[in-house]
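note to self — DONT lose this again. spent like an hour looking for the file last time. sequence + predicted structure for the chain T wanted, 253 res
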Amino acid sequence: MKADTLGELLAWTPPSIVPVIGGGLLLPETKMILYGRYKSWKSMIAMHTGMCIATGKKWFGFSTTRGNVLILQSEIPKAQYQKRASKYVAGNNINTDSLWIASEPYIKIDKGFGYTDLERDILRIHPLLVIIDPLYKVVSGRITDEYDMRQFTDRMDVLINKYHFSLILIHHDRKEQVFEGQAVNMGSQDMFGTSIFLDWCDTAIKIEPQETDAEVRLIPDILRHAEDDVKPFMVSIDRSTLRFSIKVDGQDD
């Protein structure tokens, strides 16, 4: 460590920062958490995000930087994930060799052997972005325990610092809180587990299912690096093509 004087700090020229996802949502070497309840399209949004970065396509209207993407998914059987990926690729006219998917139902990356496997793939792929889906399946510690989860976040920070990628975690929310018969929206505190994740992540976006199961609302509630306010927005999903579109004034955009 070497501290700068104020003059040295002001004279320092920072490196050029090219965001992974624009609007300050995901900068290089930062962390995003996408979270929501069961059947809120989280895994498909994770796949969509990986496809967007791997091809340089916009992510729900936000610009992206094209780069290699590694998705570690441990919830969906490989055959079913292949079926979804094939449908998405055909429906969205995708052609990329910049996306890698690891389907590992038993991996625990807060332990040495799983951590080593993940690091080996990161070293081989050199990803701009790593997506882990879902968090609860890849940790052996208790998500509600701060010590256990700090071990996980510290390990992820070491990898990020060493290999210079950005990280997205797919996570769940806690059981809905109800007061006097009304659901209480607690923002990012609805995220399941210890509060360490609120302090650790740079961006947190809640995925909220709607009355129709082909629509979700994305609610940004932690935006540490966004220069402008990012409002919640609606997304519709075409089940026949797995194509996502932003809902603007009641119309698909």
